[in-house]
Please model this.
Amino acid sequence: MRVQDVMTTEVLTVRSDTSLKDAAEILARNRISGLPVVDGENHVVGVLSEGDILFKERGAQEKKGVLERWLDLPLPEAAAKLEARTVGEAMTAPAVTIGRKRPLTEAANSMIDESVNRLPVVDEDRRLIGIVTRADLVRAFVRSDEEIGKEIEEDVIRRTLWIAPESIEVTVERGEVRLTGEVETKADAELIPAFVQRVPGVVSVLSKLRWPEESGERNGRLLLWHKQP
Model:
């Protein structure tokens, strides 16, 4: 699956000169946790999240010591966020973005590595064309076994690895994938389960793929068990 398969194309946005109060109202009214910030040509220049606004509210309280409040961010950035009156002054920039044709595994990795809940989806010129959230990735994970099996056979085995899918039997039950059949090389037998594990909705992969004579062996068999971390 690709980002374009799950992203939302109707995206609420704000400009850098939008007041922080107006942006907060948009977040609250639409029950969303973040907004892409765009310029006049719809290029993504940053992201405003609830966290950016909460940082300002936290800074106005006296419950936390001054040192504790300022340790989280570099001093210039912390000062700018505390004094922010517009979106441009409070937003996080540069924005972490992703292309629409990138695999969902890449989107998941970016969200985890960058500690973000959403990724603006951009075209080749960094113009906004959609947004993908953690909730979108979770919905992709709960796909049916039939959909998962079809993606494994068509996208992974045929299109990505260029292997005839009829040589491999794919069985999926509640996200647990079983692979049987014969492939040309031991390398193929090792590579296929690794790619299958990346398919959204796959919980584990049990591979019993065989390969022909190799390194003096008449027949080989590889047994691999991959579990979702």
In short: The CA atoms of residues 70 and 123 lie 36 Å apart.
